[in-house]
Amino acid sequence: MKRLNLAIAGALGLGLSTVAWAGYYEEKLILPSPQYVEQQGEEIVYQNMVQCRQIHWINIAPRQEMTPGGGPYPLSITFDVTLELSTDGGVVYTPTVAQGEAQLLITEGGGGGTILAEIKLDYDKIFRIFGGNLPPNVVIRESPTLASSGLSTCTALTGPSGGYQIESFFDVFTEITTDGGLTWYPSIDSPPMHMVGIPEPATLSLLALGGLAMLRRRQ
User: Fold this and answer.
1) Rounded to whole angstroms, what are the CA distances from 141 to 15, 101, 138?
2) pTM of the prediction?
């Protein structure tokens, strides 16, 4: 069975070119933020000319705590999705609200004060965006042919405030169906959904006070 590897980019040398934001959190969570936003700023164009942009995963739950050396263990998550969808080749975009779900398999490692989380997902079990006010029979799933990847790191902070600096992203290549799954259309030379965990406003304030900045991470 094919697995989507949302793997440890730095440790496995996957050659990703990505952007992730580091944030301050009181807990060391695998999915540190309840919201992830698509950061590429480009439309995802599918072969049937359906397009989507401005993708936002919100209300992600649950968000399992990281435990060095723990796992592997499964984690089922649900989330809400907002996006803009075009079914006419990008002429008109419609604000859309949908549901999302995924079955994750978590493996963790640690060392030097940093925990890295490896996240795997079976595309043909559960990873889909569906429902809401999507057009009838429209579903988005992870690509069964393109390798997706990601990273989640957690570093314990020193000082009186303690806490953790965490950055996390997913790069997920997707495909879409408009007939309830009879035909699936991959994207056309488009970037993946580059979903980045976004610190909440309170954590952004703590970042400023603590001298931490949003980090751009490129390999």
Assistant:
1) 24, 10, 10
2) 0.77
